[in-house]
Here is the input.
Amino acid sequence: MYELDHHTPYRHARYQFTPLPLIQRGLAYHEAGHVVLGQLVGFTCERVRIHTITRDGVTGWTGTTTWARSFGTYLDIAVVCGASGQAADLHQLAESGRLTPETAHLAEADHDKQMALNILTAEIVPVTETGPAPEGGLAWDHVLATAQQRVDREWDRITAVAEALLAAPDFTLTGTQAAQIAGITA
Here is the structure.
C-alpha cells in the first residue's frame, strides 16, 4: 500500500500569502489528479482526503491518496504517482486565470516525483531527466508530458472529484465514491 503526498504542509513560508480556500482547492485538484488517473489504469484507491497536519510545530494543510493496489506499466506508475497531481494543479490554475510563474512554483510536487523515482528504482527502472529514455527506462520529461495529456483528456472527471472532495464532510472520499463521481467502473 502506498500513501501519496506525505510532504511539507501548506503552511511553509512559500505559501504564507496564499488564502486558505485556494490552498484547499489546489490540494483537491492535485489529489483528484492522482485518483482519477490511477483508477483509470486499474489502481485501487482506498481513500483520498485533504487535511491538516502538524510537523515540527507547524500546522498546515496537505493531501493524501491511499492505494490498496497500484499495478500498471512503469509509465503508469510514474504518471499516477509522480506527475498527475502537479499536472492537475497546474491545469486548474490555468483554467482559473491564476497561473503565473509564482503559482506554478507552488504547484511543484517534488515529493511525488521522489516517491515515483523510489518505486522505479526499487524495480531497477532507469530514469533520466530528459529523453531519449534509456533502454527499459523512462525520461521524466516524457512522464510529465504524458501526465499533462491525460489530465487534459480527463479534466471533467478530475474536476468532478475535486469539487466533490471540497464539498465532502472532512474533505474525504472513499475510493469507491471517487470512482462513482468520476464515472469510472471496474
